[in-house]
Amino acid sequence: MMPNLVVDFDTLLTMSGKDLGTTDYREITQQQINLFADATDDQQWIHVDPERAKDGPFGAPIAHGFLTLSLIIPFWGELFDVDGVTTKVNYGLDKVRFTSPVKVGSKVRMNGSIAEVTEVKGGAQIKVNATIEIEGQERPAVVAEFLARFYK
C-alpha cells in the first residue's frame, strides 16, 4: 500500500504540526496474538487461552499491549514517507500508554500528526503523536509519541 503522503527532505523540515490522517482498519486475530506470544514468550492465558479468557476480566482474549503498539510500523507506512533520503530509522518512543484492551476480532486503526521536527546531524528527527483506535469504542487502545529519523 502506498502512503497517503510522500514528501522530500526539505518539505519534511517544515511539517511540524501536520496532521497525517488516519489509516484503514486492521482486524486483530487470535493467530496474530498466538504468534506474538510465541515470539515474545508471553503465553499469559488472557492472550492465548480463548476458553479461559471468556470467563476472565475482559470476556475474551486480548492482544498484548506491545502487539498493538508494534502495529505503529505498518500503520506508519500507510500514512507517510520521505522520498530522496538514504536511511529511515525507527528511533524510539517518548511516551506510551495502553489505555484500553483490544479484544480478539476487534479492528484497529491509527491516526497521527507530526508534533515536532528537529534537525540532527545528517538528517532530521520527527516526533509523531500516534493514536491507535478501536472501531466502535471511544477510548483508544494506545496513545504514543513515536520518533523516526531520516538521513540525507
Automatic annotation (TrEMBL):
Gene3D superfamilies: Hotdog Thioesterase. The lineage of its organism: Bacteria, Bacillati, Actinomycetota, Actinomycetes, Micrococcales. InterPro entries: HotDog_dom_sf, MaoC-like_dom, NodN-like. Belongs to the enoyl-CoA hydratase/isomerase family. Residues 17-131 form the MaoC-like domain. It comes from Paenarthrobacter histidinolovorans. This is Acyl dehydratase. It comes from the Bacteria.
